[in-house]
Amino acid sequence: MKYTVKELLDLGEDGKFAVPAFNIYNFGSLMGIRKAALETGAPVIFQVYTRLFDTGTAKFLMPAILEVVNDLKTPAAIHLDHGRGVPEVLRAVRYGTTGVMIDASTLPFEENVAATKAVVDIAKEVGISVEGEIGHVGAASNGDECGNYTEVDMASEFVRQTGVDAIAVMVGTAHGKYKKAPVLAIDRIAGIHAATKAHLVLHGGSGVPEDQIRAAVQAGIRKVNYATDVCCAFIEGYKKLDPYSEPFDVLLSHPADDVKEYAVSRIRLLGADRYGK
Ligand SMILES: [Zn+2]
To answer: I need a labelling partner for 115 at 20 to 30 A (CA). Which of 100, 162, 206, 276 fits?
Structure first.
């Protein structure tokens, strides 16, 4: 059942859980996440990188994602991950996303506000949700998880000036594979959560220790992004295949099932399987 991203995150706020956002790369990863949603009954976000729109993949993958979301009996949303600006956002809206991220987090505060507000104005007209980013979430390969945390006052001012539904915050995570387990700023999450009504988003969820994820959700994180480990689950499963053992379609259902197993474990970790129970 198609929901906006904000509607899903509102469910998370009500039930004190976080909604997982899984990046979808191909048909196999889509089938894996679909099965995880069916098995758990949890609300999930199917998330697509801007890159997939750049390369043309999304043109063909998005109709399949839409079909899956419409077919599910449980709440689901489709979200653009790390949109660069209005052209990318419009493209995603045209293919049916119910939420978009505008990431202008490397720009100075006023420019980030202006770029994000421009997207919020468009999104309001078409009834979809917007995630901005305040404080920059960098790359684990650079050790960026040890960088500057998002300031509480700056986050609340950013939400006030832009009207965004959700904000990605820098609280000790980074994108990609961590060299050592990250340490999250749980107090900072709680501080930002208390200071703003916008939902808080944790990027770089792959590889964060489970106890820290639980503490982050308890402190107010309502969306956790999983990308790197979705890829790992699929590729590791793929490596084990014997190409002559089964027909190709049957063969490729196995790494999709590995993605499902991974997704089910993250859904349970975030408490999203409690939805409706
Ligand atoms: Zn991200």
So the answer is: 206
CA distance 20 to 276: 16
Instruction: Give me the catalytic one of 10, 81, 103, 187.
Output: 81
Q: For residue 81, indicate whether it is catalytic.
A: yes
> Is 37:74 a contact under the CB 8 Å cutoff?
yes
pLDDT at 73: 97
CA 102 to ligand 1 centroid distance, Å = 11
Q: b/e map of 96-130 (b: 16 or more CB within 10 Å)? A: ebbbbbbbbbeeeeeebbebbbbbbebbeeeebbb
Closest CA to 20 of 277, 273, 276: 273
Instruction: Answer whether residue 198 shows pLDDT above 90.
Output: yes
The alpha carbon of 71 and the centre of ligand 1 are apart by a number of angstroms equal to 27
- Note the pLDDT tens digit of each residue in 216-263: 999 999 999 999 999 999 999 999 999 999 999 999 999 999 999 999
The average pLDDT across 149-178 equals 97
CA distances (Å), origin 186, targets 28, 156, 216 = 35, 17, 6
Topology adopted by domain 5-274: TIM Barrel (3.20.20)
pTM above 0.90, yes or no: yes
Domain boundaries, the chain: 5-274
pLDDT digits (tens, 9 = 90+) for 119-150: 999 999 999 999 999 999 999 998 888 878 99
- Which residue in this structure is represented by tokens 């978009």? 100
Q: How far is the CA of 181 from the centre of ligand 1 (A)?
A: 18
The secondary structure of residue 256, as a DSSP letter, is H
Q: What is the mean pLDDT of residues 50-57?
A: 94
**Residues with Cβ within 5 Å of ion ligand 1?**
203
User: Is residue 63 classed as helix, strand or coil in its secondary structure?
Assistant: helix
